[in-house]
Amino acid sequence: MATPFFPLFMEKKEVYWISAIFVITLSVRLVLAFLLPHFTYESYFHLQQVGHITQTGLPLLDDPLSYGGRHHLFLPFFHYLTSLFNLALPLPIIAKILPNLFIATLTIITYLISRKITQNKTAALFSAGIAGFLPILFTTNQFTPEMLFLPLMFLNIYMFLNLNKKRYLHGYVISFIILSFTSSATFLLLVGFGIYLLLSLLEKKKIDRAEIEVMLFSLFFFIWSQYLFFKDILFEQGISFIWKNIPAEIISQYFPLLSLTQSAILVSVIPFLAGIFVVYRSLFHLKNEKMFLLISLVISTTLLTWLRFIEFKLSLAFTGVTLAILFASFYQDTLQFLQKTKIHHLHKLFPRFVLVLLAITMLSPAITTALRQEMPTVEEITAFQWIKENIPQEATILALLEEGHLITFVSNRTNFMDDQFTLIPDVEKRFAALTSLFTTQFQTEAISLFDEYNIRYIILTPSAKEKYNLTNLQYRSRECFERIYEDESTKIYDVRCTLEKTREG
């Protein structure tokens, strides 16, 4: 049965099974996405950009509200694509449907790659199911370019595995061009190609001319595309621009050193252990050239993560999907092993055993991940909306770092700081000031910083209280900090004092 989405080799029964996995994955994700009312904190920057593109046709590069005025640099394909749908449907609806639709397509792409490598339908279906319910990917309310990048990346890999067919060559070129304008993490693929070439030379494996030509095209096009968007920052900061100017005090949040146990939970224990086994075995007995490329990508991901060139969460997500694909090889080899043993009669029960084991170890962590996403509460969003309606347009407002985009998007006011650090010259100093304003005991120090950065309002949310272990600001006094908004959890204060004089009410 051939369709625009499924190749000629697939039978009708296969299409039904993989379609069912896709629909189940998408349905569960959408139920959770709409069950939770808002988005993850980092999503609000991208929502703002999509809204601006929908209204003006251009991204918001010169942002007067972020940091009191700054210039943004980012790759815009994801935002333009979403804005096209935003012309027909409200942004909050589109922002929940599209990312989950993109991630759900990983089930189909994973199936196709696994089927290509193993020629085993059942093994490929298990891989698809694993990809659909990876805990690390179950951030159902995340609206970021990474939600498009991951399925595009593996679609590109599938096209590369089929370069001997002309239509797949065209598909590779198109998908790589889109990738290059979606995320700079595309260089992960290029490093994987480099390791693939190196290992091929060491193992004396012949590399097709078409593969070499495609790799060279990819390298030069990627360099050109990144130069086109980031040449100014590249000349200014050199290779350090890779770390996005993240303050040293919190860089460990972007590149954490998680234990093997934590990593295994995030990508699910069974595919993690199976994938490690397959990688270890394949490094010494590489027979399948298609598997050879996947092993190279695992090595490149590990290397770039260790060098802190890729944020840990993205690298773990990429590794998780790769391990899901490798699980197909593990399943096939295990089944063949069982058939050769004295308990060969149990091989018919093996698929059921695997299904139950995967369900037990994956479903609960995936749903738990979705329910524990870091996002503002309904009460907090209400407070930020109150700011938009009641606080002067020119006001600068202090909030948590992760709440900075809520100030600009929901409140439409100037924030003191947010997590878009690129091109901010005094980011270390600002972050130290932000921390002090939530933790200092001294009113004079706080007022001095309020004066320096012209901050006139503070929003103290439950998230801020939890992060800094506060019940209230330690330096607050009624004379200098008037409470102008309060509900059961969130407070907003008007800063009424300066070091020179007290402002009149």
Automatic annotation (TrEMBL):
Taxonomy, superkingdom: Bacteria
Keywords annotated in UniProt: Membrane, Transmembrane, Transmembrane helix
Segments passing through the bilayer: 15-36, 97-113, 125-144, 169-202, 214-234, 254-279, 291-309, 315-332, 353-371
Name under which the protein is recorded: Uncharacterized protein
Organism: Candidatus Buchananbacteria bacterium RIFCSPLOWO2_01_FULL_40_23b
